[in-house]
């Protein structure tokens, strides 16, 4: 199938009125439909839409990074708080053991208490190390969050400006599509139903349904017709000025 955006745009036709010939009406209708196809394609694939999508994605990534930092800072805060609580519990336990150790006479009991105290001290050392590491990481994350939040205004402003530009472009395109739709209706009313059915069928299959014959070349498929084909299409188009291209099948304006 030939893509409508790659096919040649028919020459501009005069404004439709009762004086237009059938070939002029068809060329004008094809011109309107081609313009509408190009606008519809631009509406979905424009650089403005791409920039808006990029700016929106940047804003989303910024939010995700902010959330990640805030979550990590909260997790580290929980780790620090838990370490402090556990450290306090171990310290209280250590103090109780110290008191017991002062009253113990049997060597074995004293040795057991001292081993338990050593275990508690080892656990407290591990907690101190974990708490220190969490504090250091939290400090780094805090700094990163402050710097990250400093970018918020520029990121959101860029996304907002890109969205506004896209909205303006879409509104402009939609207004032009509405105008073309009105023009299409005017032209279709002036064309016979049977010819419209042929036009619609060829447009659905080929994208561009109508092409003028320039010299020996069909402007739809860009193939040159032989001398015999030229004579044939001229004979077939003698009455209406319209026939089929023998190569691509488009409505050929002779």
Descriptive report:
With 254 residues, the chain is mainly α. It has two domains: 22-38 and 180-253, Helix Hairpins; 48-166, Helix Hairpins (Orthogonal Bundle). The protein has helices spanning 22-45, 47-103, 107-149, 152-189, 193-206, 227-236, and strands at residues 210-214, 217-218, 242-244, 251-253. The protein has a four-stranded mixed sheet. It is rod-shaped, with a radius of gyration of 40 Å.
Structure described in brief:
The chain contains six helices and four strands; from the N terminus they run αααααββαββ.
Mean residue pLDDT: 92
CATH topology of the largest domain: Helix Hairpins
Sketch the topology as an H/E string, one letter per element: HHHHHEEHEE
Number of domains: 2
Strand order of the largest sheet: 2-1-4-3
